[in-house]
């Protein structure tokens, strides 16, 4: 199994049959054949053994966790409304919220990480989003620029669920900093988590809007979140990937709205975020608001300046 949660080159596909508009503490996972459609032609099939195994992992993990709470360490910050697990190891003081779980707890839960213990990398305050008034805009080099509500994203597109491992680019940076100090903070070894993410294929969304061809300049797909960040000169968090990646069905890129069978939590991008298997976590924009098809890569500060920490044996001049 590789880092994206695939076996023998085949993604682990699941259907979560919990209603979209209600959270559930007992999600049901069906790892069955994914129905093909005009917007997503591929079909996959998984067996009942995997379905039951993953379901039991999630149930066991949830049953062993203490409830998330309003942590006193968040008092006086913009995140004082967000409930969090008290055992998490904070890496950048009070705010912004960046944490990893204790390594022994991560290992104890095994293959599937309970959502409250999934590592978090935030660059600023968590945006306060509502399902019923959130919209994702698709614009740029497309024939039909559109805005989609959350209900449209859920009900008008095929959905799939993928078992995906997310890894922060800074995982184990503490050891790197012991050799040569970087500008990054001291991540330990637990900035890695595996959960079941559900959403719609990105390519289906782009096809609905009529994405242009390379000849018409459509070379990159940019993602922009709702979070306004002082560290980037007041800009919003943004990044991009190549159009070829975005439109490749084998990449399994989804616009996700569920994690382990439930709606996303605030720290993990509620109500909607990107999941891009095989890429660093910094490319998976949370609190997604805009998708822009462009010729150039994203010009966001966080695409060009952030998440670019050189290895300890490489100098800034490349020597």
Automatic annotation (TrEMBL):
Q: Does the keyword Chloroplast apply?
A: no
Identify the InterPro entries for this entry. Answer: Mopterin_OxRdtase_euk, OxRdtase_Mopterin-bd_dom, OxRdtase_Mopterin-bd_sf, OxRdtase_Mopterin_BS
- Cofactor(s) annotated in UniProt: Mo-molybdopterin
Q: Which Pfam families match?
A: Oxidored_molyb
Gene Ontology molecular function terms on file = heme binding; metal ion binding; molybdopterin cofactor binding; sulfite oxidase activity
GO terms of biological process kind: oxoacid metabolic process; sulfur compound metabolic process
Its name, as the record gives it, is Nitrate reductase [NADH] 2-like
Carries keyword Calcium?
A: no
Q: By its UniProt entry, which Gene3D superfamilies does this protein fall under?
A: Oxidoreductase, molybdopterin-binding domain
Q: Which SUPFAM superfamilies match?
A: Oxidoreductase molybdopterin-binding domain
Please report the organism this UniProt entry assigns to the protein. Nicotiana tabacum
Keywords noted in UniProt: Iron, Metal-binding, Molybdenum, Oxidoreductase
